[in-house]
């Protein structure tokens, strides 16, 4: 019966294009009229075709494929641990991984290739050698300068990584020999596993809770560590102290990708076949027969589909085909399979799937860059793929997975793109692009008429054609000092003011006469922050002069509170007669001279 159903799905699918080829790229002409049968029963195994509930017009699907090629900017800022770092340190990060049962451990790699770790020292998983927890990043000397291409972690946690040269390093929890060095003592510093694998190189690594896997460039899979359910694929349930080639039905296959659930393992062969072994209590192996599998077993239910990516959650598995179709199987206690009952609807092709062995969360990104999540999301069980506003699946894990760990080694794209605001900021006082100069106290400031007109009503009026200023290339300013006029123009380009309080009074004057209300407020803030006994009276006088009532009130209170000290300053004695009288009268009214 299942064969008939599958056949039915595939006949329908093959209207779009012929199957069985593994080189096909996601189809441009993605068809909007596929009839999807969303679940197929394979005797005791259940495969679900996850239907992303979204309608996109086929024409759009064509255009968006090109957008996809542009990588979306990924940031580490969404993971709380990074708030411990300075903005400069965050900016230097090129790759990062947050892990641990409470997402309290971090490894990151900087622009210059230095490797750091910080967080809780659970099982010595920081690899720093001293076994200490730390809030300040510590360098992992042994790894600095090595280009890291793949990194994974277990629940112990233990950390496993592969370098560009194919070296494999491991450290942290080793209670089940998951470091692969033949012993079960904890690894304080990175241990070079390569020597235990006859110097085989690795292109990808994956960790389950306490077992480890690596994939070689030749497509061989090696596994070691905890083996209580056969997750090492050795045919027994004895823990595996050193890396061992996963053979049997995988022996003659070239593997393309590997993934680990908590206690299960998956591999995708280059012909699109999927193999699973280890624990099968929730059907996560997707095989028809009963029992945990001690050796790799091909997923017959996926016959005829060409899988290209595979990821495992705690006890569920997601597989993505070369046509952008998403299959899910295994545990569904939080809805992590995303099984909707929608039939007969257009579906967008999926291009990336995401899951992590320590969570029940699933995520996928579609061809047009939309990111969906389902499963356990911050305590809620979301049973249908839910469209988010994220641009990458990593953000789903940062914000909705528990623990909020990374599902993969995060790569931060170096971005030299400037925003409009940054570009504008850079062009302030640029003689290269400017079309106007101001001359203040004999010094020149280069600006752009268009910018001034856009940013300030005063200039918009000034540059209307009937003003003579419009023809000029240099405008002389005599009414304001250089620091004041300079920071005014700079404010128009940057939105911010950087002036000492004494000069801010001059700028307040300017802002008042140009009717720049926001600038007025900024100046008042600067003055309030900079008030002191020595300048309190001159600031008060200025506030009165520039009609800044709020500021006047503030300065007045300050003067009353510090009456003895401020009356001993020069500014007090230089105060204008009327202003002084007014001050004394107001101060006496509020009881300043009572004793
Ligand atoms: C670091 O973790 C290890 C293993 O959990 C423990 O033995 C050690 O005492 C810890 N060190 C500190 C300073 O907490
Ligand atoms: C394996 O790691 C342990 C703990 O770091 C260490 O004591 C032992 O010497 C290592 N074994 C080998 C063969 O390197
Ligand atoms: C293995 O998974 C299948 C479903 O795919 C399930 O019927 C079977 O009971 C599982 N085996 C065990 C030991 O739970
Ligand atoms: C899906 O639809 C089938 C048939 O209409 C129904 O038996 C099943 O209960 C539905 N499942 C869910 C989760 O709604
Ligand atoms: C503005 O540019 C001129 C010439 O390019 C330069 O001499 C001057 O120092 C600059 N002023 C500021 C504040 O950067």
UniProtKB/TrEMBL annotation:
* Keyword Transferase (UniProt): no
Q: Which PROSITE patterns match?
A: BTB, RCC1_2, RCC1_3
Identify the CDD domains for this entry: BACK_RCBTB1, BTB_POZ_RCBTB1_CLLD7
Per UniProt, residues of the BTB domain are 434-501
InterPro entries membership: BTB/POZ_dom, RCBTB1_BTB_POZ, RCC1-like_dom, RCC1/BLIP-II, Reg_chr_condens, Signaling_Regulatory_Domain, SKP1/BTB/POZ_sf
What the entry lists under PANTHER family is as follows: BTK-BINDING PROTEIN-RELATED, RCC1 AND BTB DOMAIN-CONTAINING PROTEIN 1 ISOFORM X1
From what superkingdom does this record's organism come?
Answer: Eukaryota
Upper lineage is: Eukaryota, Metazoa, Chordata, Craniata, Vertebrata
Give the gene symbol: LOC103191531
Q: What keywords are assigned to this protein?
A: Repeat, Signal
Q: Where are the RCC repeats?
A: 113-164, 166-218, 219-271, 272-323, 324-367
Per the UniProt record, the source organism is: Callorhinchus milii (Ghost shark)
Query: What's a Pfam family this protein contains?
Result: WD40_RLD
Q: Which residues form the signal peptide?
A: 1-21
- The name on file for this protein is Regulator of chromosome condensation (RCC1) and BTB (POZ) domain containing protein 1
Keyword Protease recorded: no
């Amino acid at each position: 019966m299942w064969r008939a159903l599958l056949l039915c799905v595939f006949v329908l699918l093959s209207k779009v294009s012929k199957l069985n080829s593994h080189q096909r790229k996601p189809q441009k002409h993605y068809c909007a009229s596929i009839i999807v049968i969303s679940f197929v029963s394979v005797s005791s195994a259940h495969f679900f075709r996850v239907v992303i509930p979204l309608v996109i017009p086929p024409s759009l699907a064509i255009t968006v494929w090109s957008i996809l090629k542009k990588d979306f900017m990924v940031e580490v800022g969404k993971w709380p641990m990074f708030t411990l770092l300075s903005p400069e340190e965050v900016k230097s990060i090129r790759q990062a991984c947050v892990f641990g049962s409470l997402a309290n451990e971090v490894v990151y790699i900087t622009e210059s290739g230095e490797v750091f770790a910080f967080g809780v020292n659970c099982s010595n998983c920081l690899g720093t050698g001293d076994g200490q927890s730390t809030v300040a990043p510590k360098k992992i000397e042994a790894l600095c300068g090595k280009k890291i291409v793949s990194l994974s972690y277990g629940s112990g946690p233990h950390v496993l990584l592969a370098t560009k040269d194919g070296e494999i390093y491991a450290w942290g929890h080793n209670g089940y020999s998951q470091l692969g060095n033949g012993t079960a003592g904890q690894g304080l510093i990175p241990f070079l596993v390569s020597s235990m694998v006859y110097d085989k190189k690795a292109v990808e690594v994956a960790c389950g809770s306490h077992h480890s896997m690596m994939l070689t460039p030749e497509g061989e899979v090696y596994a070691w560590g905890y083996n209580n359910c056969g997750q090492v694929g050795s045919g027994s349930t004895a823990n595996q102290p050193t890396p061992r080639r996963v053979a049997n039905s995988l022996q003659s296959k070239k593997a393309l990708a590997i993934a680990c659930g908590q206690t299960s393992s998956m591999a995708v062969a280059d012909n699109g076949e999927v193999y699973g072994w280890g624990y099968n209590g929730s059907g996560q192996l997707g095989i028809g027969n009963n029992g945990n599998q001690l050796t790799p077993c091909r997923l017959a239910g996926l016959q005829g589909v060409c899988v290209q990516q595979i990821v495992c959650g705690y006890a569920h598995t997601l597989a993505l085909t070369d046509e952008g179709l998403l299959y899910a199987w295994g545990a569904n206690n939080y809805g992590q399979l995303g099984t909707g009952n929608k039939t007969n609807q257009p579906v967008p092709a999926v291009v990336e799937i995401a899951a992590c062995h320590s969570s029940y969360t699933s995520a996928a990104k579609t061809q047009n860059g939309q990111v969906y999540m389902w499963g356990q999301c911050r305590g809620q069980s979301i049973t249908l793929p839910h469209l988010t506003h994220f641009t990458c699946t990593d953000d789903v894990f940062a914000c909705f997975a528990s623990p909020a760990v990374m599902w993969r080694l995060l790569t931060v794209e170096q971005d030299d793109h400037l925003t409009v605001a940054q570009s504008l900021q850079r062009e302030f006082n640029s003689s290269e692009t400017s079309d106007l100069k101001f001359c203040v106290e004999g010094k020149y400031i280069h600006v752009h008429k268009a910018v001034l007109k856009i940013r300030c009503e005063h200039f918009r009026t000034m540059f209307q054609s009937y003003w003579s200023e419009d023809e000029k290339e240099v405008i002389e300013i005599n009414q304001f000092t250089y620091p004041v006029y300079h920071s005014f123009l700079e404010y128009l380009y940057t939105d911010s003011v950087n002036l000492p309080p004494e000069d801010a009074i001059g700028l307040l004057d300017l802002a008042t006469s140009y009717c720049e209300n926001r600038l007025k407020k900024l100046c008042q803030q600067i003055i309030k922050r900079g008030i002191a006994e020595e300048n309190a009276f001159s600031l008060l006088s200025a506030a009165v002069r520039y009609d800044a009532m709020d500021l006047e009130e503030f300065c007045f209170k300050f003067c009353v509170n510090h009456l003895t000290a401020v009356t001993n300053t020069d500014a007090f004695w230089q105060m204008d007669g009327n202003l002084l009288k007014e001050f004394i009268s107001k101060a006496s009214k509020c009881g300043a001279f009572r004793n």
